[in-house]
Every structure is written in structure tokens, then in C-alpha cells.
Specification:
It contains 17 helices and 20 strands. The strands form 5 sheets. Strands 1, 8, 9, 10, 11, 12, 13, 14, 17 and 18 form a 10-stranded mixed sheet that branches. It is an alpha+beta fold and about 525 residues long.
Length: about 525
């Protein structure tokens, strides 16, 4: 199926939804409305720069950006329009003629749960924290060319860039570097912990719609609406985020009305849920790529012919049906279709076992060696896909086998300071809807999600020029060249872009898909 980016953004793809109940059985009195949510586990921390299980899902409810994407309605559903950037915590901005200095004027009267007003000092403090931690927020700064953030008045903050950036405004829609209530956070800082990171493991202090009230490790976290929130108060005044490790139990709780939202149903459960009138299921095209990655520092993957052969050996349509139950689109670029600049024209790896064998022979491949595909349980597709890919490689003579490792090992071995897995399954994608951000994230030698350490000076040069130019036609051409180079080098066995599904009570409405694939509780309400 041909997919146009605008179709995805505006929601013209077919959306499956269970029919709502005749009466909203879960509607509650206007005072004290509670959203009950079941997730695989309770959040293990609330510092967006140090992501742990459950962190991103919850901090996006607490910390909001200086800007936000526009929205459109299509077929009765809201969607983001990344072609439109609006003010959010910042109400306006100006930029210098060379594009290297931006001044953002903050919205006045914005207050945290603790009652402290947001000022430019809070923005400066949050960016300083991310710079100091040198983790996710620092990567956002790097790819956006931000070198310094400084409060120049109570409500004005200045961003200094090393080069012009067309990514900056989109990056500022994110939850990090976060705008903290630094007045409150500093109360919990110590000389040994100047950023109060220990306190942030069990506390929040933001200017967003929700605030963490309590957390019990391994059990649940309870959030309450920020009574001082600068927009209209949320429909749900309280959110209980419960740990329910069993996917089957989460489904049972949803169907029985004991919870109103579950995090990411298993794909094999979606078809069943779609026929249940008590439940609403909705989908959105995802921004991630499920893949099997090859590390070019390890033989035989240092040979491009081997990497290309492995791509020809894998039957992607069979994976879509057998692993993803039809809820995925074949991947044809490192840039997902939801992002402007996606170009599938360089994909040449349709299933062709004969060509795979010919390339392996040309590469003098050693058929006596065993190739291991490492996988974990971070994503529920990893095991079945790794097993099927191993079987398809075996069909062309490769001694391949799938080997399971722990989730913690997968994360540790894919981290920038290690990256020692020769071949493994993983899923990544951009949370900024921009092709330069996507390629920097996944294919630049400094990309934090470049987990197999693909390093090609030609690729770095293309991406670096693209992130420093305001010449749109040139930028687009650079991204075409980058996608062509990446596809020719074939560092991944590209498989699919998975569809994102959410399941909720039949009377819950308002879900708007976001690039990070997490709902915003502020959007949700009972019909």
C-alpha cells in the first residue's frame, strides 16, 4: 500500500475502532474523576534524562515544551500537524538574521503544582541540567545545534546556536530538556547531588497538566491534576498508573471496566479487542523501525555483500503477517513515512533467496560459522521475528540461530559506551518529526540510537551539512543522498514500521497520537 505522509498526519488512513457503548458506563461525577491505567510495570524514575521503564510514559504528562505542534481534526479524531509549530510555554520568539540566536518570550502566569511561577531561570536551569548529564537532553541540544541557554530577563530566554537549525522549534515541543520548577527542585539538591537526581527518582516538579502525588515501587504511581495549570483543567483530576505485568490480565481488567486504559495491547490481542463493544481500539502509523542490526566492526558484517545478501534472504511480507498479524508496513528507508522527506525509492531488497545465495558466494562467506541473532523481551515482536529471520537465513545456507538475552543486557550492550553486539533485534525511531533528526539519531556516528555503531564519514557529512543549512531544497537533496547511501550500505535488515495500537474503554475519547507514542492524559475524556 502506498502511503503518503500527509495521509498519515491528517488521519486519512483507515482507523479501526470498536463501537462505543450505548451509555458511558464508566462516566464519573464531575468532581474527582479518576483515570485507571494498567501498564506492564510501575514507573522506576521521573528524570527524563535518565530513562527507565515507565519514565517517558509519565514525564510527558508533567513536563511540557516551549512549543507544540498544531492539530487538525479528521474523521472526528485529532492528529498532530508537524508543519505547524505554535507557542506553548513560550508565547512568541524572534531570531537573528544569521539564525544563530533565538529569544523566546515566556507565557506569564504559568505556575507549577507548588505555586511557583515559571521564569526564564527555570528554562536555563533545565537545559543546564541536561548539558551536565550529557544524556538524552544533551543529544537534543547537539542535534539542534544549541550551545547555550541563558535567561536575559524574567520572561525572556536566549538560545545560542553553533549554526542555523530547522530542527529547533520541533525539538522544543519535547518534554526535555525539561522546564522544571527549579525553585522547588533546588530545595532538594545537595553538594553531592546538585541537580537533585535522587529526589527526582520519586518526585516531579513541572508546569504541565499533572503532578506525581505518590509512587510505590513495583505497584503503582498516582498523579493529580496541577490545580495551577495555565490551560483549562484536565477532565481527569487523578490518574492511577498500576503495574499489571500480565498482558492477559490487563485485557481482562479493561474488558471488565476495572481500568479505562491499557498500555500497548499485544498485536495478537488487537483483532479480538476490535470485536468487543466494551472496548475502543484505535491505531496510528508508528514512527519506529523494527529491524535486525549488523555491527560492521564484526565479521562477517564488515562485508557489504553479506549485509545485502541477508536483506535479500528475509521475506518481509511473511514477517508482517506471521509476526505483526498484518499490523505493520514494510520498511523501505531509515526515515519513517510519517516524516517529511521519507524516500522509499532506494529500497532494493525484495525477497530473493537466489540473489542472497549469489551474493554470499561472491563474498566468499564461510558457511561453517554460526551467526547469532540476539534478542530480548523489550519489544514483544523480538522473539518471533528473530526466530523467523534465523529460519529464513538458514534457508539460504547460513547457520543462524536466535539467542535470547536479558532486557538489561540488551540496553547495556547497545549503549554508546559499549555497542558490542554483532547482530541483534531492536526498535527505534525519531521523536522529532524531522528527517535530519531521524538520520542523526539512527545513522550518524554520534547518534544515541545508532546501537550497532554504524560509522561512515560520508553519512556524517551529509547529516551535518543538512542540520546546519536553511536552504530547504539543498536539505531535501542531502536527505535523499543519506537515505540512498544507508540503503546501499545495508547495516540493518530493514523489516517493518509497526502500527501503534491503543486500547481503552469504549467511552474514552480524545486520544491524539504523538511521535513518542505515548498518550497525553490531558487529551482524554469520557464521551
Amino acid at each position: 500500500m502506498a502511503i503518503e505522509r500527509r495521509d498519515i498526519l491528517l488521519g486519512t488512513m483507515a482507523m479501526a475502532a470498536g463501537a462505543p457503548l450505548a451509555a458511558p458506563a464508566l462516566a464519573q461525577p464531575r468532581a474527582g474523576r479518576t483515570l485507571l491505567l494498567a501498564a506492564p510495570g510501575a514507573p522506576e524514575g521521573f528524570d527524563g534524562d535518565a530513562l527507565r521503564p515507565g519514565t517517558q510514559e509519565t514525564v510527558v504528562q508533567v513536563y511540557e515544551g516551549l512549543t507544540r505542534y498544531g492539530r487538525v481534526m479528521r474523521d472526528g479524531r485529532p492528529y498532530l500537524n508537524p508543519d505547524v509549530i505554535e507557542g506553548h510555554l513560550a508565547e512568541s520568539w524572534t531570531t537573528s538574521t544569521d539564525g544563530k540566536t533565538w529569544v523566546f518570550k515566556l507565557r506569564q502566569g504559568v505556575r507549577s503544582f507548588f505555586g511557583n511561577e515559571m521564569t526564564a531561570a527555570d528554562v536555563e536551569w533545565g537545559w543546564a541540567k541536561s548539558f551536565a548529564q550529557r544524556r538524552t537532553g544533551a543529544f537534543i541540544a547537539n542535534v539542534s545545534n544549541v550551545t547555550a541557554v541563558k535567561a536575559i530577563s524574567k520572561y525572556e530566554v536566549e538560545f545560542t546556536l553553533s549554526a542555523p537549525s530547522m530542527i529547533l522549534l520541533s525539538a522544543l515541543t519535547l518534554y526535555l530538556p525539561a522546564v522544571y520548577d527549579s525553585t522547588e527542585v533546588k530545595k532538594h539538591a545537595t553538594p553531592e547531588d546538585p541537580w537533585a537526581l535522587k529526589w527526582m527518582e520519586t518526585n516531579t516538579a513541572g508546569f504541565g497538566a499533572y503532578h506525581l502525588e505518590s509512587v510505590r515501587a513495583g505497584e503503582q504511581a498516582v498523579f493529580v491534576a496541577n490545580p495551577n495549570y495555565f490551560r483549562e483543567q484536565p477532565f481527569f483530576t487523578r490518574v492511577v498508573y498500576r503495574a499489571v505485568p500480565s498482558a492477559a490480565s490487563r485485557i481482562t481488567l479493561l474488558r471488565s471496566g476495572q481500568v479505562q486504559w491499557i498500555h500497548r495491547p499485544l498485536l495478537q490481542q488487537v483483532a479480538e479487542l476490535r470485536s468487543d463493544r466494551r472496548v475502543r481500539t484505535q491505531d496510528s502509523f508508528g514512527r519506529t523501525i523494527s529491524s535486525v542490526r549488523m555491527n560492521l566492526r564484526f565479521p562477517p558484517f564488515d562485508n557489504k555483500l553479506v549485509r545485502q545478501a541477508f536483506n535479500y534472504a528475509v521475506d518481509k511480507p511473511a514477517l508482517i503477517q506471521g509476526v505483526f498479524f498484518g499490523f505493520a508496513e514494510q520498511a523501505r528507508s531509515i526515515v519513517p513515512p510519517i516524516v517529511a522527506g521519507y524516500d522509499p525509492s532506494f529500497f532494493n531488497y525484495d525477497y530473493d533467496p537466489a540473489k542472497a545465495r549469489a551474493l554470499l558466494a561472491q563474498a566468499n562467506f564461510n558457511f561453517d560459522q554460526t551467526v547469532e541473532i540476539l534478542y530480548s523481551q523489550i519489544f514483544n515482536w523480538e522473539e518471533p521475528m528473530s526466530i523467523q529471520v534465523a529460519a529464513q537465513l538458514q534457508a539460504v545456507g547460513v547457520k543462524a540461530r536466535a539467542v535470547r538475552i536479558s532486557d538489561s543486557d540488551m540496553r547495556a550492550r547497545g549503549a554508546p559506551n559499549r555497542q558490542d553486539m554483532p547482530m541483534f533485534s531492536f526498535e527505534d525511531g525519531p521523536i522529532v518529526l524531522d528527517p535530519v533528526y531521524a538520520t542523526f539519531l539512527l545513522a550518524h556516528s554520534q547518534g544515541v540510537s545508532n546501537r550497532a555503531r554504524f560509522a561512515d564519514p560520508r553519512m556524517d557529512a551529509l547529516i551535518d551539512e543538512a542540520r546546519q543549512t536553511l536552504d530547504v531544497p539543498r536539505r531535501n537533496e542531502l536527505m535523499r543522498e543519506a537515505q540512498k547511501l544507508w540503503m546501499d550500505e545495508a547495516p540493518w535488515i530493514v523489516t517493518v514500521y509497526p502500527t501503534v495500537w491503543e486500547a481503552m474503554a469504549g467511552n474514552i475519547t480524545g486520544w491524539c497520537p504523538h511521535p513518542d507514542e505515548h498518550e497525553r492524559w490531558y487529551d482524554l475524556r469520557v464521551a
